[in-house]
Amino acid sequence: MHLTKGEERIYDGEEGWARQTCMKILVRLGELFDAERLIPIDSAHVSGISYKTLGDVPIEFLETLANSGGEAKVKTTINPQSFDPKYLAKKLPANICGKQLRILKQFERMGVAPSSTCTPYYLDRPRRGSHLAWAESSAVVYANSVLGAHTNREGGPSALAAAIIGKTPNYGMHEAENRRPKVLVNVRNPPRNEAEFGALGIHLGKMLGDKVPLIRGLRCASEDNLKQLGAALAATGMTNVFRREPIDIETSGMEKINVESNDIAQTIKSLSTVSTQKPDLVFIGCPHCSLTEVKRIAQLSEGKKTRSGIECWVCTSRYIKEMAVTDVKRIERSGFHVLTDVCTIVSWTEILGIKTIMTNSAKTAHYAPTLNNAETILAPVDVCLKTAFRG
Ligand code: F3S
């Protein structure tokens, strides 16, 4: 890999251990993928910061990095953590909360925004064509496919290294030829709600591997629907970008995949592991809710009350919660908790006795059986809310 004089100085340790370590991580990554150089990035997003997924060992590494002057050189955000500051913080054991706070402290010391959301694009929408180093797979697909930015699917360490250096190796999604579609996907009947968009993503992720699809049949999809599609696509496959019509490209020689209504119906069925309609938790907000989604939930919650003995969570970012004060109050009057900073998958739901989760997110339904040891029910938001409410 070619390094500039300034980059070589960092590599040789002339700017301290933290920057040298981060530069070595980026150079190693670049060599693995035959990148020729580093390119500047507009922002970084670090995932894997929940104590549940991170564990104990990396905490010391983060502390050493912060002690050695590691500091983000570009705008940097972090993914959800194990609890929200108000509701779950009081329900989870003190040792878990303490470890989580220790992790968050290190990011704060390194100048990283305490965003704790997987939708950093609502806080600050990346420019079309900008280069990023993001590590949350759902946000990566959204940034590449919906916003037209360029980011590889970073790991937590490489995203943090990119944040501290302000650069990333130039390969993969940063290069135009790797974003060209290789497979034409015909969706015969457009998905009708967010749960079906998610199911389409789960189905396609398994079929595509890492191939870039051009998807036909999504013309009327909202950005929220595309968010569900992308999050699920990344959960079962390695595709980091999908393209949609209209796009000026020759499709005659492309491999073709047809998706029938039955494929989506079967996927939804497979993501619902129990037939009961009595979940312990109704969870909306994977990926974290947009302003539009919060407004819709508020409308559907008006005048309703949740059943007793059931946990009801809407997860979003602090930023969206602050923007939607009136709608949040309407939702909370119904008995739902509007939680920030957290989500079901990265929290400790088993400790709360949650054994069955109902959600409108195919990504959560895909991961919850293994990561939360829970049964799942996948259904659109109106059905989830109807289940949560009395009468
Ligand atoms: Fe976000 Fe958690 Fe889903 S990090 S994408 S809400 S699994």
Low-confidence stretches: none
The set of bound ligands, ions and cofactors reads: FE3-S4 cluster
Q: Largest sheet, order of strands side by side? A: 12-11-10-13-14
Report the strand count.
Answer: 14
Q: Mean pLDDT, rounded to whole units?
A: 96
- Molecular shape: globular
Structural class by secondary-structure content: alpha/beta
Helix content: 40-55%
End-to-end Cα distance: 64 Å
Approximate strand percentage: 15-25%
Major sheet attributes: 5 strands, parallel
- List the total number of helices: 17
Radius of gyration equals 21 Å
Features:
single chain; 391 residues; alpha/beta; 5-stranded parallel beta sheet; 4-stranded parallel beta sheet; 17 helices; 14 strands; 42% helix; globular; binds FE3-S4 cluster
